[in-house]
Predict the 3D structure of the following.
Amino acid sequence: MPDTVKRAIILMNLGSPDSTEVKDVRNYLNEFLMDGRVIDKSYLFRLLLVKGIISPFRAPKSAEAYQKIWTDEGSPLIVLTRQLQDALQQQVEEPVEMAMRYGNPSIKAAYDNLAKKYPGLEEVILIPMYPHYAMSSYETAVVDAQDTHKKGKYPFRLTFIKPYYNEEHYIDALAESIKPYLQQDYDQILFSYHNIPERHITKADVTTAHCYKVENCCEVASPAHKQCYRHQCITTTHLVAAQLGIPKDKFAISFQSRLGREEWMKPYTVLRLPALPQEGVKKLLVVCPSFVSDCLETLEEIAMQGKESFMEAGGESFTLIPCLNTHPLWVKAIAGWIQGLKAGNKEMILQ
């Protein structure tokens, strides 16, 4: 009964345009890029840059890219997140909603839906669909959820699942999703993560003296690692490689989806892919662990553009390993976090 439901769950993913129409893509890009945690410049600068330069030129190209991956049901990211919602609902008693940081369904819509259905609701467990901490992904999702909650004066409290880049069940799920593809002949598996500006790394450094300032900073223990996206990506890679027994000379890390001209984390996936065949890597596997749901950045940027770049440079085979999507162990991992919270285990809670 609605009155007896005290706890609910929201899965919060990045988002997608409502359609492949240029106007909808433009609206989505404007909302996304006007976020001060994505482009952390003054409002006026963002306004001129995004609405005066980026959006008018990028929207038509992005619309074409979305058209290549769009399904009969809509955006792959939305469809896959909804499928994950349904799969999780089969394993937990709590009602499960989904929301997007940008676009629809919004976090406000998810809150409103829960508040209307379950007037006695006391707690919402919000799970950002970002394994790694970054100002432009995990942090903005949390802040937006908090701001919307405060503005709407909702009676229930919020509990956030913390970044799970090194959590054993997430690593198990990611490793098992990769494992079948290692049966084929391959020269290298490339772990391609979404990129962020180097400036974001140093800005998130709580010590102000570690990231990019200490030699091998990601390998040297520091409080900065709690919010260091680069360290967390490297950690995920090494944990998965160790669990699968992948030799050090058969895996590498790169970063994709760079925007603008400032320095972003290196190496860049877009440059590594055409270079690899010249280095003897002819048979390539690619996995994108910073995305838990396949989306434009995996299905079009990597599986289409990236493959073409690699094959034209002399590659012989290119395989994109799907994101976790609705992998049974991924669904089980999330359900396990919920069960742990119910049992009083606060290990997965963002403090």
Remarks:
- The chain is about 45% helix and 15% strand.
- The chain has two domains: 2-164+328-342, 168-320.
- The CA atoms of residues 191 and 273 lie 12 Å apart.
- The chain has a mean pLDDT of 96.
